[in-house]
């Protein structure tokens, strides 16, 4: 019995030990399993899903197709259609926009006759038996078909022109200057009174001090009216007439000296010298172009004003967006937009004007010390007019098709410069729309500031600039309201779409979680 108990005890002890060990082993194993699953869930999520995801990625990599695979045929045709559409759109825009500028120059040589030229021939009477040979010769040349093709030579009736000069208390030459300055004519040819008899007397007497050119034919003009057009078209045209006169000078001299004593005249070296002097024109430029820097603010700089205002639209877009998100009233928001735009262009025009001042351009020719202020305010109105339009159209194209913004910029520049940098007299009549464009009127005012040209049109120029400012600002407000409403509507639609997608995704995630737990 005793042995049996001992064995049982031992067995019991042994069993107890085994049982305890077994329990410990079972606990440790269970703990290990728990730790394993906890580690997997923490680092890798659900293994089945991760495996599925890994397999799907591998499958996607393994199933990449060649671009020319037959399975992608529909996608290829879709790309071809999209490329074709974009080519067609860009080509159409390029043809239409560039044609505006090209068209302003087309057939210009056939419109040279539109250039009004003032011609006053006072040498139209016989004096002491000397016929008005020079006056008649110039008249004959100007009435020839070749000369009329080069310009519209408006030969004045001397008596009527004298009366017009008397009305303004002017001499003939002073009245010519007034007519040119008031931009009624591009240039002039003035054959002075008694030019033929004066030249005859100088030849006969051998008066070498006689200025044949100045006392015969004078051309008065103002380059400042349009320094590019004057140097490229107007002045060369008058010089062509001068060449025609000098080339036929032998005929003039033979008629002038037909009653003179040839042996006496040609025996005198001084007489020969005077007679052989060419009938060159004396050119008087009352508003010369003397500072090459003026090309920048007068022409190219005007293009930059349009471009820089477009930059402002991009620079301040984030600020405007931030203000819009502050919950400000619509009326206050629109007022903010107008005032901020005005202040922006006010300072931008100042910086632009300071560039011209830094290069020592003379602002005092027309308005004295106030010239810079006039220039600044002109640039301010110009930038406001073109810049507000840029902002309005920029918002419109963001709503329609953002890539069109670049073509709008190109169109707006060309629409303004096509009638500005080319005399409207040499362009087709359709380009007279330029009279209403902001850059054209700014250009006209700029010429007054830098060259002291005729001020009589400044009131009209400033009036048109102000009208452009008003129209552009109203359009800006309208587009701002439309833009805000449309973007808010799109934002709500996008938010609803995202919420719906999130809802669907959450439902799927929950369904997958339930499946995994089961």
TrEMBL record:
Residues 87-473 form the DUF3533 domain. Keywords: Membrane, Transmembrane, Transmembrane helix. The chain crosses the membrane at residues 84-103, 293-316, 336-359, 371-389, 395-418, 462-483. It holds the Pfam family DUF3533. GO terms for cellular component: membrane. Residues 1-26 are annotated as: Disordered. It comes from the Eukaryota. The keyword Transmembrane helix applies. This is Nitrosoguanidine resistance protein. It comes from Clavispora lusitaniae (Candida lusitaniae).
